[in-house]
C-alpha cells in the first residue's frame, strides 16, 4: 500500500473528524479509508486513533504523527512540484510568512499581479507576531532583521532598505496646523506603533546629524490597520513609510509632512530554509518583488 496516500488519508481523517467525511472528500470509500489507517498503525506499531461508535480522537502518538506527517507531505508535494517545474511552467504552493504589517500592507500590494504572471503558482500567506522566528515550513519569510536567527537552518538575504517619514490626514492639519520642525512634534498628537503610548526614535533632518526623539500621543496599537485608520480619521500623526501607505497617499487620505525628516534606515530581509535546492517559485517571487520595488520612493533595493 502507498505510504504517502495513507498518510494523506490520515491527515484528512483528523481534519474532517470522521472516516465517512474523509472518504467523501477523498472521493473514495469508507472501507478504503479504514484500510489505509490500519496499514499505518500496523506498520508503525502504535495506535494513532481512538475510535468508538460516536467519537474519533487522536492518541498522543497520533497527534505527533499528524503534525509531523502533514509537514512532510507538504514538503514532498513541494519537491514533486518543483521537479516538474524545472522544464515546465512554474507551479506549486508558495508559503509566505510575514508580520501583520508587512503581510497586509506590503505583501498584498504585489501578490495579485504576481499570481497573474504565474497562474499555476498558489500563494498562502501566514501572518506572524512581531519578533516571531520564521518556521521551516515557510518557503520564504519576509521581515526585519532577526537577532537570534538560527543560521544553521535559515539563510537571510537582504531585500530592501527603507526610511520612514511623518504622515497626517488633511483634516488633522487643518485643525491643528502643520509642524515645521522636529521640535514642533511635541505640540502634536502622535499615533504610536507599539504597546506603549510613547516611543523613542532616531530622526534625521536633511544635512544634520540624527537625534533621538520621544514621540507621545493618546493612542497606540500593534495592529497596522487600526493605526492607519486612526491617522485617516484625523486623530494624529504617524511615522510610517510610502510602501505601506501608497494607496492612502494616492487617494489623498494622508499627506507627507516634514519632508526633510526621516527615521534611520530599516532593512527588510527574505529568510529561506537552508535546502539543497531553492524553489524556482521562491526565486521568481523575490525577483518580482525587487523589480516592483525599484519604482518606489524612499526605498532602496539591496
UniProtKB/TrEMBL annotation:
It comes from the Bacteria. Keywords: DNA-binding, Transcription, Transcription regulation. Residues 1-59 form the HTH lysR-type domain. GO terms for biological process: DNA-templated transcription. GO terms for molecular function: DNA-binding transcription factor activity; sequence-specific DNA binding. The keyword Metal-binding does not apply. InterPro entries: LysR-type_TF_proteobact-type, LysR_HTH_N, LysR_subst-bd, WH-like_DNA-bd_sf, WH_DNA-bd_sf. Belongs to the LysR transcriptional regulatory family. This is LysR family transcriptional regulator. It comes from Vibrio algivorus.
